[in-house]
Design a protein that fits this description.
The chain is built from 18 helices and no strands. The radius of gyration is 27 Å and the shape is rod-shaped. It folds into three domains: 1-102, Ankyrin repeat-containing domain (Serine Threonine Protein Phosphatase 5, Tetratricopeptide repeat); 109-199, Ankyrin repeat-containing domain (Serine Threonine Protein Phosphatase 5, Tetratricopeptide repeat, Alpha Horseshoe); 230-305, no CATH class. The chain has 305 residues and is mainly alpha-helical. ANK repeats lie at residues 36-62, 76-108, 108-140, 141-173, 174-206. InterPro entries: Ankyrin-SOCS_Box, Ankyrin_rpt, Ankyrin_rpt-contain_sf. Keywords: ANK repeat, Repeat.
Length: 305
């Protein structure tokens, strides 16, 4: 009878029944028994049963114990903290952390903080950070927690991570940063936040990163932001190999030197800047745009008159 009682009681979060099992089997270590690889604590945590989780922890359940189910890669080796984090059980996470759960253990290559970041669980992330979770851990694909929150547009969570030391200069396996993830998603708030914190679009491992989707992502962001008008095409078209096409956008929309400075500072990879500025200077001289000629000269372009 007791063999079936404990796991049913745990699954249902039934504290009274768990108490009866404990009274009868206190010396038999039942809290460490498993049912298809799950301990009673795992089952309580999975169901988000706060009171039952607290009861089991007080009875000696180990918050660091892992699910043992080799036949199922989706759960084999997962910890209680990962289970609670994945399903957003804030109060259960709080109990587990207070009982000494390991904050930086990985499951499927990710820590609980990275899992919480993918879902934007602000309160859970705040708890994990307060308990010393490593902020800049990267998963097997090189993605950090900041990458994930930027990709999903969780600006409030991004601010929390940045306030606790998240780096804007980490790159994933493709050589892209959290700023790339934010621009690709079209999230203006997070993009601005990352730029204000020192992120730059040209801070990438490969100068080719601004091709294709990255250029399009930057274009979408500037469109939404509307801070620099139609100059958005500068970066995208230039890095697709068409500096003169980029200049045509300038011709149609007028030259805003502040916008040009912005594009050069945060958009163009340094290896592209000289080519662009030379083309810009040549066009400016041909069209008697003296202010623009001076701008190019100030940027280091040698003018041939």
């Amino acid at each position: 009878m007791l063999a079936t009682t404990w796991w049913r009681a745990a699954s249902q979060g039934d504290v009274k029944r768990l108490g009866r099992v404990l009274a009868l089997e206190r010396d038999e270590g039942w809290v460490h028994r498993t049912h298809f690889g799950y301990t009673a604590l795992h089952l309580c945590v999975w169901g988000g049963h706060v009171a039952a989780t607290a009861f089991l922890l007080s009875a000696g359940a180990d918050p660091k114990e892992h699910v043992h189910k080799p036949s199922d890669d989706h759960v084999h080796g997962i910890s209680s903290l990962h289970l609670a984090t994945r399903d957003g059980h804030v109060d259960v996470v709080r109990l587990l952390l207070a009982s000494g759960a390991a904050t930086d253990e990985r499951f499927l290559g990710r820590t609980p903080l990275q899992v919480a970041s993918e879902h934007g669980y602000f309160e859970i992330i705040e708890l994990l950070v307060r308990h010393g979770a490593a902020i800049n851990v990267q998963d097997t694909n090189g993605r950090s927690s900041l990458h994930s929150v930027a990709a999903w547009g969780y600006a409030r969570v991004a601010r929390l991570l940045l306030d606790h030391g998240a780096s804007v200069h980490l790159f994933d396996a493709k050589g892209t940063s959290a700023l790339f993830a934010a621009t690709e998603s079209g999230d203006v708030a997070t993009t601005k936040l990352l730029l204000d914190t020192g992120a730059r679009l040209h801070n990438v491992k490969s100068p080719m990163t601004l091709h294709g989707v990255f250029a399009d992502a930057l274009e979408r962001w500037i469109l939404q932001c509307k801070d620099h008008g139609a100059l958005l095409d500068l970066v995208g078209r230039l890095n697709d190999g068409g500096p003169l096409a980029a200049l045509s956008v300038l011709v149609l929309n007028g030259f805003v030197l502040e916008a040009l400075r912005f594009v050069l500072a945060v958009g163009l990879h340094p290896t592209h800047q000289t080519t662009f500025l030379r083309a810009l200077a040549a066009w400016a001289m041909d069209h008697n745009q003296l202010t623009l000629v001076q701008f190019c000269h100030d940027c280091g372009v040698e003018l041939l008159i």
